[in-house]
Amino acid sequence: MLRRFHLDEPETVKDASDLLSRYGESAKIYAGGTELLLAMKEGLIQSERLVNVKKIPGLDEIKRIGDSVHIGALATHRKLESSAELQQSLPAFVQMEANVANIRVREVGTVGGNLCFAEPHADPGILLLALGAGVVAQNASNMREIPMDNYFVDAFETCLKPDELLTEVRVPIPPPQSAVRYLKFGYLQRPSVGVALRLSLGDGGLIRDVRVAVGCAGPKPCRVEEAEELLKGKGLQEASELIGEAGQIAGRAAEAIGDLHGSAEYKEHIIQVLLKRAFHQMVQEEFSSKGEGGPHA
Amino acid sequence: MQFEKQIAVAAPREKVWEFIWDVDRFIACVPGCKEAKTLEDGKIYTATMVEKVGPFRVEFPMRIEIEQSEPLSHIKARASGSDSKIGSLMKIELEVNLKEEGSGTLLSFVATVDILGKLATLGHSMVKRKADQVMAEFVEKLKKSLETDT
Fold first, then answer.
1. Is A183 within a domain?
2. Cβ B54–A155 below 8 Å, yes or no?
3. Among residues A145, A172, A199, which one ends one of the domains?
4. Which of the residues A197, A230, B53, B136 could staple to A278 if both were Cys, CB 3.0 to 4.6 A apart?
5. pTM of the predicted model as reported, rounded to 2 decimal places
6. B129 in reach of chain A (CB within 8 A)
7. A45: domain CATH number?
8. Domains in chain B and their CATH numbers?
């Protein structure tokens, strides 16, 4: 049963941040509530105050600014999966969003809430890491942009300060000759393993830029720079011979934990399989049929 | 969950033994532990364990009973407590052994920790991970406290 709590409904980020400063740990931000309310009903989180940020105008907008898309933290997964702007500029992100949890969660759950709760078995953070995204954190007087590489600290823990609100996610649009994939696997409600890959080709069809990110298997999403280094500068043929090794490196980097979703060894193996699959999908669907200058995904 | 830890301490066995039974100094090394009290010297103690994982906070008032104690070498204890707010129970069985090693002491812990109730829904792996962090911090504080103490 949900215990009684006080509901605040600030209309500006400053007011929301002031409430967080004033009430400290006894106040929690409430957006979609898909994680928070469940935990409160179970009694796992006791909060005397909820700060409903959904009354703050403009925090759910999706805008293209230059070579990036700025996504308001309050945009629901549903809004993201049906956004024409995102379909155009970041189709892989749309596909990931369309498969987050289930339709009930997507209808009310927000991308900001998902990132703030930092539940380890979540999809968006992994893909955003591979896309080189950043988040904007704001308190009453300051605003700062945090690269996704530095955002997740541990399971359920982020680098946000107690009085900060995550207000926006900024995603750079991959350059031409790029492809992006996010693949996940799981048999429970939440994914057991998630793998994201972004590849950009340069002159002569060599891999100019590559980002690999893994998550769900361990406590937090992480980027695998060692695997990226292995693939960078290689041609697609050579990379296809190295992708298995890159997958092994990614498996180890995930800090997989054995639990109900599977043993650590199992998860490491699935990471390798998914990374190989993501790479081969890109090569077949984006780079080979359209030549190596196909559109970004 | 079972935890095993061996700590080489650069301090004689008598000093380590004495330290373990000095409740206030010992408790200061256990992260999240507060309000330690002696109910019966050498036999029954109470303390409260507070831990936080992201937005989740647990508070276990624990009762610790010493089942066996052989001076300078061995302690066997049992502790249990429940967090009524979140409806969870924690039980710990602990064995501590001290062995002389040169001029220092080899202190070994074997702890079996059982967590029942809603806290378990967070997942065994999360709880184990947090417990590992707590244990590592404990070892560091204990060594520092024993080795710098005169």
1. yes
2. yes
3. A172
4. A197
5. 0.88
6. yes
7. 3.30.43.10
8. 2-148 (3.30.530.20)
- Residue A126 near residue A213, CB atoms below 8 Å: yes
Best interface-test mutation with A: which of B125, B126, B132, B134 has the largest number of A CBs within 10 A? Answer: B125
A264-282 vs A236-253: helix crossing angle, rounded to 10: 160
Closest chain B CA to residue A158:
B54
For A177, the 3-state DSSP assignment is: coil
Residue B38 CB neighbour total at 10 angstroms: 14
- The residues in A 77-136 lying below 8 A from B, measured between CB atoms, are 117-118, 120
User: Is the CB of residue B46 less than 8 Å from the CB of residue B64?
Assistant: yes
Q: Chain B partners of A44 at a C-beta cutoff of 8 Å?
A: 56, 86, 118-119, 121-122
**A132: containing domain:** 62-172
* ipTM associated with this complex: 0.72
Q: Which residue, chain included where needed, has tokens 């340069």?
A: A202
The nearest CA of chain A is from the CA of B134 a distance in Å of: 14
Question: Which residue of chain B comes nearest to A218, CA vs CA?
Answer: B125
Alpha helices in A168-263, H assignment, sequence order: 225-231, 236-253
C-beta atoms of A219 and B53 within 8 A: no
Instruction: Please identify, among A126, A150, A172, the residue that sits at the C-terminal boundary of a domain.
Output: A172
- The alpha carbon dihedral of A286, A288, A290, A291 has a sign of positive
Interchain contact B86–A (C-beta under 8 A): yes
Which position has the token pair 């955003």?
A: A128
